[in-house]
Amino acid sequence: MLPASVTSTIRGILMDLDGTLYHQRPLRWHMLLELGLSPLTLGPRRAARTLRHLRAFRQVREQLRDLGCPNEPLEDLQYSRTAERLGDEAQAVRETVAEWMYRRPLRHLPPCRRADLPAFLDAQRERGLQLGVFSDYPAPDKLEALGVADRFSLTLCATDAEINAFKPHPRGFERACELWDLKPEQVLYVGDRDEVDGAGAQAAGMPVVVLGSESGDYPSAAGLEEVTRALQG
Q1: What are the start and end residues of each CATH 3.40.50.1000 domain in the chain?
Q2: What is the pTM of this model?
Q3: 172 half-sphere exposure, CB direction, 13 A CA radius
Q4: Alpha-carbon separation of residue 217 from 22, 56, 100, 183, 199 (angstroms)
Q5: Torsion of CA 141, 194, 97, 24, to 10 degrees
Q6: Top-level CATH class of 4-22+109-232?
Q7: Exposure of 71 by Cβ count < 10 A (0-12 exposed, 13-18 middle, 19+ buried)?
């Protein structure tokens, strides 16, 4: 975990969303079940098209990490490049992603929430720390579904016009510091992926804790309760 010399300077906590505020594995099982049933609910042809859209979209998003801050808006580029790869229409890809990645998972989120999340957020607010979310995906609807939207004063997405860069590019981390008027060393980032969250926070000059990491590349914690203990000294 982080040394006391670091935790004593923390004035804000910026958090990843997927895999950090909730457990992804049970959510993925729920969505795999829905996709498995999609040939019956949507018909075989539409179900196959849905799967193609989702697979290609995820692959394209990972590739777009290497672009840094492109001249084109990532919000549009992620769909246009997926459509080009598939020989399909960008609007069709956008609609598939909106339904299967943004809307359908919401009802499954509450039981997937980390059990220690509310106590963690309340403890940090009591200490007067700023709380925010920076994710590669839109966060507001998921935060509402998790029942914690009111805990955060800042919600940022990598595709926001003022950021336009997927993690691990430091721009989103830096934007949070600008809005809070804090130095990077005063903001702790909590995420769940070394190569994305750990590397991005480090590039921005932020201390970072990666939940569940066993690589040793960055400070890690088994859960948010452990992070709370470290912050309390």
Answers
A1: 4-22+109-232
A2: 0.94
A3: 31
A4: 22, 30, 33, 23, 9
A5: -60
A6: alpha beta
A7: exposed
Task: Report yes or no: 200 and 170 within 8 Å, Cβ to Cβ.
Answer: yes
Phi, psi dihedrals of residue 35, rounded to the nearest 5°: -65, -35
Q: Quick one: DSSP state of residue 209?
A: E
What's the CA gap between 118 and 109, in Å, rounded? 14
155-211 pLDDT, tens digit per residue, is 999 999 999 999 999 999 999 999 999 999 999 999 999 999 999 999 999 999 999
24-81 residue pLDDT tens: 999 999 999 999 999 999 999 999 999 999 999 999 999 999 999 999 999 999 999 9
CB contact at 8 A, 153 and 182? no
Q: Which two tokens stand for residue 132?
A: 């925010």
* 27 vs 20: CA distance, rounded Å: 13
